[in-house]
Amino acid sequence: MADKPMKEGDRDLELEKAQKGHAEYEKQQTEAQKKLDARDAAVKEKVKNVVEKVKGAFKFKSGGSVSSASKRADGCAVKGKTKGRIV
User: Which residues constitute the domain of residue 22?
Assistant: First the structure.
């Protein structure tokens, strides 16, 4: 079937219809993005609260570096312990 050539008025109607459809699509996408952003913000806030609770429950001491292994006092690295023997 051969397509009929569109009249000038028909093209304008089709263009207007397409523009309205695109505007509606953009509006829906914007609303959906706002909902996702709100959900993400809520999740971030919950994660922040959980992290604060965990940090409050486990009060760790601030550690420092040790200059040598023998100063750790756990006995695993005392200087001269093997005395040349193969372990």
Answer: 8-57
